[in-house]
Amino acid sequence: MNIKLSGELSGIIEVLKKMAMFEMTIAELYTICANTWEEDADFWLDIWRDEIRHAQYIKNIIEIITKRPERFEKGRPFNVFSLETTIKDIREKIEKIKNKEIPREKIFFIASDYENAYLEDRYGEIVKSEDIEYRTLMQKIVNETGKHKEKILKKIQEIDTSK
Fold it and tell me: Does pTM surpass 0.85?
């Protein structure tokens, strides 16, 4: 049954708004990292751009689903509490970075943990659809997140070998 008939449209839209908030919050973390560790600024700003783009993709997805809800069915439940907890944790890390409580080497591991939390990988599970525009945007998020994981892992390996 599509989400328009099932009455689940508003709940799904709220979850997507939280997802966009997550993207903006992690983008803020990466901005703080770029400003704090200038030697890595290009690295962090590159990932930051993608996170900003992900938030925009999600806003576009909200518009798509709102305009064509009959094309979407409810997928797997998405743990909004987990998302809210992660957003709170990221904000705490931002404050710790500002207070110089997190060393440069550790932030790459923290970023890796966030990127590997599978939150972004699971975005596409919230609804089922054959809508090409929706599927394309979700796939871009998943692909770019995969690249983030690789970049961060490479940076961790560089730091390990330079010690």
Answer: yes
